[in-house]
Amino acid sequence: MAISLSTTLSPNTLQLNRCSNHLSTRALPNQSPHRNLRFSLHSSNHWNKTIQFTPQRGLVVASTISESPGIESSGLAGEDSTNLLDTVKVFDLNGNTIPISDLWKDRKAVVAFARHFGCVLCRKRADYLASKKDKMEASGVALVLIGPGSVDQARAFSEQTKFKGEVYADPSHSSYEAFRFVSGVSTTFTPKAGLKIIQSYMEGYRQDWNLSFEKDTVSRGGWQQGGIIVAGPGKSNISYIHKDKEAGDDPNIEDILKACCS
Question: I need a labelling partner for 21 at 20 to 30 A (CA). Which of 98, 108, 128, 200 fits?
Fold first, then answer.
């Protein structure tokens, strides 16, 4: 189902209410002179959280934390990142340790980095990429997804989504740190991200709240953002990088295919 939505930072409150499998939104008057934007996330079984934002110089920043909104890059990884990747290990669904660069050392791969394994937007991204898997395979390109969490979480994600690619866990977040993917409240609760969550729910995608509230996700606040790279063959051969500026910041699929399959 297609949906066209818009929002503004001027004095309204956008409230997202999540109960069971229902997500709704409503605009409420806000008489505050500070023109704040407030996201309220409610779960009948788990949590109730309100985050308030104040627009400054056209950007949305959290009122209680200072964060960069991130940058997008579509070039080679820096030398520091490639050096750090030499130390990064991920785990397959059987719990085997694998140096991350082995995922593209002998082949070309599209590697997606999820926000976390319960994320509704990441589940939509997984389908978004898997829809082009036949074209990737025809070009000898592997499709890989890495998530910041445990092997058990990775298995649950794989079973729930039936993702057609390979799934790996990065419980230490070391790959995210090597690529300098952004993290923070201000990159998670944005107007665009909120609207994309609504659209994802209307399309039938669902957040896994049990995975979302497991300890190793909550300890990072669930604020981690991911990205997509095209790499290989060769450990240091990274030809395309997209760093999410905010939750749900999917790049154009044609840009990915051009980088991996042209």
Answer: 128
Strand ranges across the sheet with 238-243 = 97-99, 89-91, 166-169, 141-147, 108-113, 227-231, 238-243
Residue with tokens 């340790």: 97
The pLDDT, as a whole number, for residue 183 is: 87
How does 17-56 read in b/e, with b if 16+ C-beta sit within 10 Å? ebeeeebeeeeeebeeeeebbbbbbebeeeeeeebbbebe
**Extended strands (E) in 104-235:** 108-113, 141-147, 166-169, 227-231
- For residue 221, the model assigns a pLDDT of 55
What single-letter DSSP state applies at residue 230? E
Do 216 and 149 touch, CB atoms closer than 8 A? Answer: yes
DSSP-derived secondary structure for 26-91: EEEE---TT--EEEEEE-SSS-EEEEEEEEETTEEEESS----------SPPPHHHHHHHTT-EEE
**Residues 6 or more apart whose Cβ sits within 8 Å of residue 155:** 93
Contact 241, 223 (CB under 8 A): no
Q: Is 249 helix (H, G, I), strand (E, B) or coil?
A: coil
DSSP 8-state secondary structure symbol assigned to residue 224: B
Percent of the chain clearing pLDDT 90 (strictly above)? 51
Average pLDDT over residues 253-258: 96
pLDDT in tens, 52-75: 333 333 332 222 222 233 333 443
Give SS3 for 196: helix
Calculate ∠ Cα 256-227-110, nearest 5°.
40
**pTM, entire model:** 0.69
Which value, in Å, is the radius of gyration of the alpha carbons in the chain? 18
Pair of tokens at residue 70: 């991130």
222: helix, coil or strand?
Answer: coil
> Taken in order 205, 210, 216, 222, is the CA torsion positive or negative?
positive
